[in-house]
Every structure is written in structure tokens, then in C-alpha cells.
Amino acid sequence: MPSHTEQAKIEMQFPGLDFPGRTTLYPHECAARLVCHVKHIYDLIEEGELRAVDISGRNNLTDRRSIRIPIEGWRAFIAARTTV
């Protein structure tokens, strides 16, 4: 996994998938960008494929209202799956 500094340098090859100026994202926003169901995003989080933070502090991914995705995690997720 890239370091925090390396993640900050990740350039989006597909700017339409980025969220300029944002620091955290809601799962439904990520689903909309990928044109998939929000359940798929929660599955990716639960499988450890997409990093997320539980802002409630309970570290309980079942309370989905408190889940946020750091922009660095989103960019790393996209970059890892970019084949072009």
C-alpha cells in the first residue's frame, strides 16, 4: 500500500472519477461515480478493498450513516484498478 505521501501524489487518469477539493466522501457519492449500487461500495469496504472511516468512533461498519471514505483511499482504490 502506498504511503500517505505517495497517495497524496496519485494523479487521477480519469478526472471524471475524482472529487476535487473534497477530503471525505459518502459511500453513495462513490457509487454514483462508479455507476454501481451503494451496497457494492459497502461490500468493498467490508472486504478491505476500499478504506473507510467510522466517524462515530464505534468502528462498526454496520451503522452505515457514519461511514466516510477519505479522498486518499478513494484515489488509491481507483489508481489500483486503472489498467490504462
Please characterize this protein's 3D structure:
- The model is unreliable at 4-9 (pLDDT under 50).
- A 3-stranded antiparallel beta sheet has the order 1-3-2.
- The radius of gyration is 12 Å and the shape is globular.
- The chain contains 4 helices and 3 strands.
- Helix 2 (27-34) crosses helix 3 (38-46).
- The protein has one domain.
- The chain is of the alpha+beta class and 84 residues long.
- The chain has helices spanning 4-8, 27-34, 38-46, 71-80, and strands spanning 24-25, 53-54, 67-70.
Show the helix and strand layout.
Elements: H1 4-8, E1 24-25, H2 27-34, H3 38-46, E2 53-54, E3 67-70, H4 71-80
Antiparallel strand pairs: 1-3, 2-3
Helix pairs in contact: 2-3
Question: Going across the major beta sheet, what is the strand order?
Answer: 1-3-2
Please count the beta strands (DSSP E, at least 2 residues each). 3
The major sheet is characterized as: 3 strands, antiparallel
Helical content class: 25-40%
What is the SS-derived class?
Answer: alpha+beta
Overall shape: it is globular
- Output the helix-strand order: HEHHEEH
Q: How many domains, in number, for the residues?
A: 1
Distance between the termini: 20 Å
SS element count, helices: 4
Strand content bin: 5-15%
Overall mean pLDDT:
83
Which stretches are low in confidence, meaning pLDDT under 50 for 5 or more residues running?
A: 4-9
Which value, in Å, is the CA radius of gyration? Answer: 12 Å
